[in-house]
Amino acid sequence: MKNKAYPYHQRTFLKDLKELVSYSGAKFAEDTAFKFERGGIKVEITYKRFKADVDALGTYFYSLGLRNAKIALVGENSYEWVLTYFAAVNGSNIIVPIDKELADGEICNLLKASGCDMAVYSPAKENAIRLSREQGLPISHYLCTDNLEDAIGAGRKLIQSGDADFMEHVVDEEQPCAIIYTSGTTGAPKGVMLSHKNLASDAYHSLEAMTIARDTVAVLPFNHTFGFLACVVCQLWVGYSIFINSSLKTVLKDIQTAKPGHISVVPLFVENFYKNIWKAAERQGKKKALEQLIKVSNTMRKAGVDLRRKLFKSVWDNLGGRLELIISGGAPIDHKYIKGFDDLGITVINGYGITECSPIVSINRNKWIKYGSVGQPIPTVSVKIHEPNEAGEGEILVKGDIVMQGYYNDPEATAAAMTDGWFNTGDIGTIDADGFLYITGRKKNLIILENGKNVYPEELEALIGQIEYVTEVLVYEDGGLITAEIYTEEQENKDAAKDAIKKDVQNLNKTLAQYKQIRKIKFRAVEFEKTTTKKIKRF
């Protein structure tokens, strides 16, 4: 069955993250849950060990009087990070994951804004913690992840002495268990409150829609909800192994070592992987041969013969040998990369999500994909277009168990974001007859021209981004003119590259409505400033 609607997958329903840890700890007890390297030593943690560690650390937190408290967590991806998250929320404490890429002052601001009672941090964040102490923040407890083993040991002793309060505690899946500060491209971060039900529901229904090949390498930062849900929660649900990547510099090496069946990444990684495949082919003098092989393979596929795994074995081997699925999220992806990887036998699934929706709202499925779309809403989630225009475009509204509990300490922003139970995403899109969602822009980025015409810069950025030599682009209004600001990484023939870009933009203009046409082009010498999720910060 290829590119047709088909039934959803049956999965085990789990109502909260505590039930998830208990379920996976029993069902997959001796299987490896986590793998990582530390100091040149390979470490493996079984599901049974993970469950025991969560119980021990959670019991330790209870011994400190931390109940219904807020626990900040700041540091790089690690086993200790995941352990702290589950130990906190499974005891009805609220976890506050903070982006390690933020400046020390910004970290302190979030520690203060969230009113945390405890901060768990990695050694790399020692300066930020020192600053928070100097500022006199009312944080009762600090715990460095280097000392987490001592805390786990203390918790084990309490359990051995008969302390079962944490293990017997029943969580309320409706109450907030996490405050996630957004890292939007505009405006100050808001604290999104998510519950066990939000997160468990999003993972469960996403897994109903997807088939994920066994095992993954966790590349995305865990403090972002997509990274945590896709790389950790969903894997624990199905009993797969999670290899924790410790540095972006070693992503390809870790993929070759761990040999995952799938990975979840942002589009930038997909693009780089794909470009590197063709750069390698060109370097080896095999580019034309690869192009011809793809043509032959696609012709054979039309006849029902699929030999992609054999024909493109060298590509597969370079990606570990087992990688058959790439899940792309966090930003739009050009469909040429989805098609390009499909030619090589690797499926790329993209979707749409937003932190306030836990975060996955819609996804293309393994065998039901429409290029250019972000897929269909996951089961039980409702999506509608508010006040669509003549083209069917309007603001995307979402309803379902995945929708947040509100913004922390910000009732006005919460009220503004909700309409009769529907979350107002601020994103603009359309829905086709099959229920596939298409994102066309962001409400706050909308350009309204003097003639009243609306221009969505993201639409133009996607088109310009396909032009050769364009590395990054931002479209905005400047003096009443639609302007494209472009960065090209081409260095050897930069002037020729700029001339080629200008010519291609002129050709693009011929295909656009007059009011959408690019009237001014600016070239910049350096890359755009980006958020920690690698999105360009808009003006």
Automatic annotation (TrEMBL):
The reply on keyword Nucleotide-binding is yes
- Gene3D superfamilies per record: 3.30.300.30, N-terminal domain of ligase-like (3.40.50.12780)
The cross-references to Pfam families, in alphabetical order and at most eight, read: AMP-binding (PF00501), AMP-binding_C_3 (PF23562)
Q: Catalysed reaction per UniProt?
A: a long-chain fatty acid + ATP + CoA = a long-chain fatty acyl-CoA + AMP + diphosphate
Cellular component terms per the entry's GO annotation: membrane
The signal peptide stretch is none
Q: What is this protein called?
A: AMP-binding protein
Please give the start and end residues of each transmembrane region: none
